[in-house]
Amino acid sequence: MGVMVAVEGLDGAGKATLVAALADAAARRGATVGTFAFPRYDADVHAALAGEALHGAHGDLRSSVHAMAVLFALDRSGAAPELRAARDAHDLVLVDRYVASNAAYGAARQEEDADGGFVAWVRALEIARLGVPVPDAQVLVRVPGDLAARRVRERAAADPSRTPDGYESDAALQARCAQVYDELVARTWLAPWSVVGAEEGRAALTRTAESVVAERLGDGTSRGIASGSSVRSDTIET
User: Fold this and answer.
1) Tens digits of per-residue pLDDT, 64-120?
2) How far apart are CA 190 and CA 192, in angstroms?
3) What percent of the chain has a predicted confidence (pLDDT) above 70?
4) Cα–Cα distances in Å, from 122 out to 13, 88, 115, 161, 190?
5) CB atoms < 10 A from the CB of 178, how many?
6) 211 phi and psi, to 5 degrees?
């Protein structure tokens, strides 16, 4: 069975960049890689409804913290069989956003910390009730809120179809979310964590990715299939 690593962080933190670096590092070791990205706005109806709500659709849906969290959880629940199959087929499975995102953003919206009821509710819902696979490790891409916000604006300017949603445009929410993420790391919530600085240069990021992959895969873990990485078409940049 392969190792599943979830990459977490604020909107605009650079999660997709790290996922790509991790995949490259694993492929260079001869390991096979599968990647996923959540929410799957184009592949799951629950994620699509949540995405539409984040842009103002569906009345007061976005105002309900728990309703939005359930939609994101159902997206992952729907992908659970694919996640398990990928874990069986590959040495490394990389996930861009996972359960911790639901916990961090929801707790931040509730103005709770990581010890509050919302974080515990997310774990009970996604892991215990819906059976979403638990990752083996998690990586937080830690980024200052102003840098993340600037990246979101630049991304939107470069691609008009990526208008910032209700979460991305809320600076206060992003700041609270960053604090909850740090608390989740401190508590080793759900699985062990590593922390990566978002302002690392390409060379430093590559070294960090190689270190994380070496730690998680070790030596001799490849299944002998040196075909490089296998990247899913539903991966999105975050």
Assistant:
1) 999 999 999 999 999 999 999 999 999 999 999 999 999 999 999 999 999 999 999
2) 7
3) 79
4) 22, 26, 12, 30, 11
5) 21
6) -65, -45
Q: β-pairing, 137-142 with 193-197? A: parallel
CA-closest candidate to residue 135, choices 86, 205, 196: 86
Encode 33-65: b = buried (16+ Cβ within 10 Å), e = exposed.
bbbbbbbbbebbebbbbbbebbeeeeeebbeeb
Lowest mean pLDDT among 3-12, 86-95, 116-125, 153-162: 153-162
Q: Note whether 141 and 200 are within 8 A (CB).
A: no
Question: Please, what are the domains in the chain?
Answer: 3-227 (3.40.50.300)
| Count of residues in the chain | 238
Cβ contact 23:209 at 8 Å:
no
The gap from C-alpha 82 to its chain's centroid, in whole angstroms, comes to: 16
CA dist., res. 168 & res. 55, Å (int) = 10
**Rg of the chain over CA atoms, in angstroms?**
17
Residue 76: CB atoms within 10 Å = 27
